[in-house]
Write a structure and sequence with these properties.
The chain is α/β, with parallel strands linked by helices and about 150 residues long. Helix content is about 40%, strand content about 15%.
Length: about 150
């Protein structure tokens, strides 16, 4: 997932733990090695930052309210993620963040906390439940195509 995220143009990788997160620890050295490898293979000159893991509460506390948060949630009622992102295009000032949930999904209180945040787009990534790594690639491709530098 790290390699694909680098290839798709992320500038920062921030592991966020939620109630259903299954990974007990994050191997930052391995993440950084994957960042370097992907950048070398793709000719990327600026390496994304790899940040220490934080909790969802810490992420929300540190979040800049003017930054658009694309919150990927398999329970979102959105039928068309492209339309949802297009609607946010006018209010989207760079930079933006993409949050992918754990394979167990978000807990209801986490979902409610996220929905109370300003400048958020909650969307589903289609009719199938995706693994977290697949969801990350799908979300970054959607964001790149609708809000990013693919336009």
């Amino acid at each position: 997932m790290v390699q694909k995220a680098v290839e798709l143009g992320v500038s920062r990788l921030q592991p966020v733990s939620t109630r259903h997160t299954q990974a007990a620890r994050v191997n930052l050295d391995r993440m950084e090695a994957n960042v370097i490898e992907a950048a070398e293979q793709c000719g990327i000159l600026t390496l994304p930052d790899v940040a220490q893991p934080i909790s969802l509460d810490q992420m929300i506390s540190a979040r800049e309210p003017e930054r658009l948060l694309v919150f990927c949630d398999e329970d979102a009622p959105v039928q068309d993620p492209v339309a949802a992102l297009t609607a946010a295009r006018d209010s989207c000032g760079q930079p933006l963040s993409v949050l992918i949930g754990p394979e167990g999904g978000f807990a209801e209180d986490e979902r409610a906390l996220l929905m109370r945040q300003p400048n958020i787009v909650r969307l589903a990534l289609g009719p199938r439940i995706l693994r977290a790594d697949t969801a990350a690639v799908a979300a970054l491709a959607l964001v790149g195509a609708v809000l990013g530098d693919w336009r």
